[in-house]
């Protein structure tokens, strides 16, 4: 299970725990309804913040794709307990923040590194985008998706797959092949090399003519649409993949992520719910106990 849960604990609100335990199923309907209502409220509030509503301190979730908001789940664990949680791994960063990172450090570890004419290490990194209604990954704007539907757009495809020497110059000490790496004892390690035939490319000008801003240009300019054939043994055609290639160059500042402070959204919702729960649960318990006394 994930690390981000808002659990409603009502034990300290019950006048006598034995009375609750001994009342039987359905003996405290007002309390059960209050738990359900407050759990739903916590879920609704968390989703609202995840969707961009400003927090009490004025901060908000930016660069929203909807994945975080959709990951926030609600469940009833019984009459008197509800839980709101997310299992999205990236939720940890949103909640607690992250230190500054220099992503170019991977250039010192990856066997797939290349060497430029100037002697600098670099990687060509593919970034995949998805349709506007996708529930996974980075979603492209509807205007870009529509652009690719134009009749004169052509697909790119892989023409062949071979090998090239790793830019690290690493020498293999064994004979082994797998995972896009080929090792032959005493020789430079080889890595997979793909050769492409490129079709239409989405340009900066295309995006600007759609009326989209600089962020869309930064993320989607240079996009290709690749054929992906159907898997062997499966009927029907394959589907397209939308790919941008970006170059990570040694010394480039564009791959350095600044420290990111946490938004503490789950913590905020928990603090907001607590006084509401204490008041609502207290009244509910009082009403249910009085009803039981009248029956008794």
Rg calc: 28 Å
Note the quaternary state here.
single chain
Extended strand count: 17
Major sheet details: 6 strands, mixed
- Helical residues, percent: 25-40%
How many domain modules? 2
- Label the overall shape: elongated
Task: Please identify the structural class as seen in this structure.
Answer: alpha+beta
Task: Write the SSE topology.
Layout (H helix, E strand, L loop, with lengths): L3 E4 L9 H6 L6 H22 L16 H5 E7 L2 E6 L4 H6 E2 L2 E2 L11 E2 L5 E10 L7 E2 L2 H6 L9 E9 L10 E3 L2 E3 L6 E8 L3 E2 L1 H6 L4 H7 L2 E6 L10 E11 L6 E2 L2 E2 L3 H31 L1
Parallel strand pairs: 7-8
Antiparallel strand pairs: 1-3, 2-3, 4-17, 5-16, 6-7, 7-15, 9-12, 10-11, 11-12, 13-14, 14-15
Helix pairs in contact: 2-8
Index terms:
about 300 residues; alpha+beta; four-stranded antiparallel sheet; 8 helices; 17 strands
In a nutshell, what does this entry contain?
With 296 residues, the protein is α+β, with helices and mostly antiparallel strands. 30% of the residues lie in helices and 27% in strands. The chain contains eight helices and 17 strands.
Structure write-up:
The protein folds into two domains: 4-98 and 259-295, no CATH class; 102-156 and 198-254, no CATH class. The protein has helices at residues 17-22, 29-50, 67-71, 91-96, 142-147, 204-209, 214-220, 265-295, and strands spanning 4-7, 72-78, 81-86, 97-98, 101-102, 114-115, 121-130, 138-139, 157-165, 176-178, 181-183, 190-197, 201-202, 223-228, 239-249, 256-257, 260-261. It starts with a strand and ends with a helix. Strands 6, 7, 8, 13, 14 and 15 form a six-stranded mixed beta sheet that branches. It has a four-stranded antiparallel beta sheet with strand order 9-12-11-10, with no helix packed on it. α2 packs antiparallel against α8 (265-295). The longest helix is centred in the last third of the chain and has 31 residues, at 265-295. β6 and β7 form a beta hairpin. With 296 residues, the protein is of the alpha+beta class. Helix content is 30%, strand content 27%. The chain has eight helices and 17 strands. It is elongated and about 85 Å long. The relative contact order is 0.19.
């Amino acid at each position: 299970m994930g690390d981000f849960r808002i659990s409603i604990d009502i034990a300290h609100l019950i006048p006598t725990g034995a009375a609750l335990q001994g009342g039987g199923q359905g003996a405290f309907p007002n309390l059960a309804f209050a738990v359900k209502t407050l759990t739903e409220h916590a879920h609704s509030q968390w989703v609202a913040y995840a969707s961009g509503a400003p927090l009490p301190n004025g901060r908000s979730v930016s660069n929203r794709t909807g994945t975080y908001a959709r990951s926030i789940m609600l469940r009833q664990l019984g009459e008197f307990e509800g839980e709101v949680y997310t299992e999205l791994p990236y939720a940890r960063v949103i909640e607690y923040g992250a230190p500054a990172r220099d992503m170019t450090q991977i250039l010192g570890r990856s066997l797939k590194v290349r060497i430029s004419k100037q002697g600098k290490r670099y990687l060509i990194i593919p970034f995949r985008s998805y349709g506007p209604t996708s529930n996974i990954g980075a979603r492209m704007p509807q205007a870009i998706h529509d652009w690719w539907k134009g009749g004169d757009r052509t697909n790119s495809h892989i023409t062949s797959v071979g090998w090239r020497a790793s830019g690290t110059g690493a020498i293999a000490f064994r004979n082994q092949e797998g995972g896009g790496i080929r090792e032959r004892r005493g020789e430079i390690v080889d890595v997979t090399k793909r050769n492409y035939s490129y079709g239409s490319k989405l340009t900066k000008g295309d995006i600007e003519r759609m009326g989209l801003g600089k962020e869309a240009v930064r993320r989607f300019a240079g996009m290709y649409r690749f054929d992906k054939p159907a898997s062997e043994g499966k009927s029907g055609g394959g589907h397209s993949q939308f790919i941008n290639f970006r170059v990570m160059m040694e010394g480039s500042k564009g791959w350095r992520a600044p420290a990111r402070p946490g938004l503490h959204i789950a913590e905020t919702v928990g603090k907001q719910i607590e006084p509401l729960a204490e008041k609502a649960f207290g009244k509910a318990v009082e009403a249910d106990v009085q009803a039981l006394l009248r029956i008794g």
